[in-house]
Design goal:
The chain has 174 residues and is of the alpha+beta class. The protein has one domain (4-171): START domain (Alpha-D-Glucose-1,6-Bisphosphate, Chain A, domain 4, 2-Layer Sandwich). It is built from four helices and eight strands. Helix 1 (27-35) packs across helix 2 (37-43) and helix 3 packs across helix 4.
């Protein structure tokens, strides 16, 4: 497992973070880990709502981010597009692509519309999330076993995010 994370500017104020990794599981299993609420809660977020294209959802991430979203694209098992905070000045997008690589599956996640000056925080956060995903695929247990809320991050995720943030800050934009 070697997560590749990049950050880029979209304009003077907004940017994007892109992370990817290859997982030792088939595409259907990885799709379930990225779309099934019970599986999502093991590694990234508690999600509720109408989980289909056009549906509205609410999520509380292990990082404490909490908000609404709209599922714009849900093409099993290859493509997912979510608009976060639709219709607000904080509107963004999270997009995921899955592709088979032999018996493994590549996952690419890109989040767009982020504050440009904070991209390193998001890069570190997404890498920590993808590492948690890898751990969640190994067994039925949660990658981050401690509870989290909108005010308190999951401790294991938070420790890894804190460790990774300086690396992403030094990387800069491409």
């Amino acid at each position: 497992m070697k997560i590749v994370g990049t950050m880029r500017s979209l304009d003077g104020k907004r940017g994007a973070v892109r992370v990817e990794d290859v997982y030792d599981t088939d595409i259907d299993d990885l799709w379930e880990a990225c779309t099934n609420p019970e599986r999502l809660a093991r590694w990234i977020a508690k999600v509720s709502g109408d989980l289909r294209a056009g549906g509205s959802v609410h999520a509380v991430f292990t990082s404490t981010w909490s908000g609404s979203g709209r599922i714009d694209v849900c093409e099993r098992p290859h493509h997912l597009l979510l608009t976060t905070e639709p219709g607000t000045e904080d509107e963004g997008q999270i997009e995921a692509w899955l592709s088979e690589e032999g018996s493994a599956t590549r996952l690419i996640v890109e989040e767009r519309g982020l504050p440009r000056e904070s991209l390193h925080f998001y890069g570190a956060g997404w890498q920590a999330h993808l590492e948690d995903l890898a751990r969640s695929l190994v067994g039925d247990a949660a990658a981050g076993p401690e509870p989290w809320t909108e005010q308190t991050p999951e401790p294991t995720w938070h420790a890894r995010w804190t460790e990774l943030t300086p690396t992403y800050q030094q990387r800069g934009l491409y």
